[in-house]
Amino acid sequence: MNRIHCSLDLPTGFRSGDILAFHRRDALALSEKVTPVSLRKGLRWEGHPACLSIDFGEGRAQVGLSIDTESSNIGADRLERLARCMLGLTQDIEAFEAGCRDHPQLGRLVMAQAGLRVPVAASVFEALTWAVMGQQISVAAAVSLRRKLIAAAGVRHSGGLLCYPDASDIVRLDDASLRQAGFSATKAATMRTISTLVVEGRLPLDDWALSVPVEEARQRLEAIRGIGPWTVNYTLLRGFGWLDGSLHGDVAVRRGLQTLLGAPEKPGERETRDWLAAFSPWRALVAAHLWAAQSATAY
Q: Is 259 inside a domain boundary?
């Protein structure tokens, strides 16, 4: 067993509840255990089953990683980078809020939700596969699909939690297993293609995480059958914390914009895209505010 720990200072008013709500999506808690002040998450680390722990206190977060191996190259600095990204501490929300506070439509919403950050997944691979699972279905249906995938992979940490699978785990699942887990033929094929590309080193998600090359990532991802602009922009948001993806195709974003504008009908994708364009480089953060105004689960 290998254990690493670090401690993070949190800004005044940090909204730990938003982070915990994101990881509380699955009520059956196969791979995440969430309390009002803590998170335990099963994941793969360098191929080994691991458990990430985050405990929130007054102004600080204590972060730990327990890996089922005696040898690992991870250091506390790498764990700290991961935790800072997951908690949204790399997001310059202060600049965003300062620029939006006087906006006639968005300003009141942003100030009512001041301090909102976008929770980020524990890996870009998890964010990308979650985006694929969430295509054109409800959050509840996507959570169920995710749960069945985790169960099918069957990777368990010594502490008891199942781990979110990595690319090699999914490559080992055949099409029948993915279909039995509830994946459509199209989504199963996309999941297997993504995983194969990662395993073969042709989709360097971990390298991108160090310094995201947005346009290269967009081009490489959109070349994969089954991945379109929404999936790419959602992955950039949840995988990298990149806040300028335009999520105008998202139904919940359009519904939130309808409410914000007091419009009789939900705006179309083009109208939503044009409205979001004025908020670049914060378009995805605006989308997160529209999500959060409707439901912590959707956010």
A: no
Assess contact for 49 and 163: CB atoms under 8 A: yes
Question: CATH number of the domain that 51 lies in?
Answer: 3.30.310.20
5: tokens are 């720990």
Name the residue among 192, 160, 155 with its Cα closest to residue 175. 192
**Torsional class of 91: left (φ above 0), alpha (ψ -120 to 50), beta (otherwise):** beta
What Å distances lie between residue 269 and 168, 254, 272, 273, 281, CA to CA? 36, 8, 5, 6, 19
Q: Give a yes or no: residue 243 inside a domain.
A: no
Does 70 have pLDDT greater than 70?
yes
Round to whole Å and give the CA distance between 86 and 35.
17
In a domain, 13, yes or no: yes
Taking the C-alpha atoms of residue 193 and residue 281, their distance in angstroms, rounded to an integer, is 31
Could you tell me if residue 6 is inside a domain?
yes
Number of domains making up the chain: 1
Angle 229-240/124-133 helices, nearest 10 degrees?
Answer: 140
132 and 12 in contact (C-beta within 8 Å)?
Answer: no
Give this prediction's pTM.
0.94
Average pLDDT over residues 121-149: 95
Q: Give the distance from CA 165 to its chain's centroid.
A: 15
pLDDT of residue 136: 87
Which range marks the domain in which residue 6 is found? 2-90
pLDDT at 57 over 70: yes
pLDDT tens digit sequence for 79-102: 999 999 999 999 999 999 999 999
Q: Among candidates 77, 100, 128, which has minimal Cα distance to 230?
A: 128
- Rounded Cα distance between 116 and 24, Å, is 17
Kind plus residue range of the DSSP H or E element containing 138: none
Task: State the Cα–Cα distance between residues 183 and 261, nearest whole angstrom.
Answer: 36
297 contact partners, CB below 8 Å, separation of at least 6: 21, 25, 139
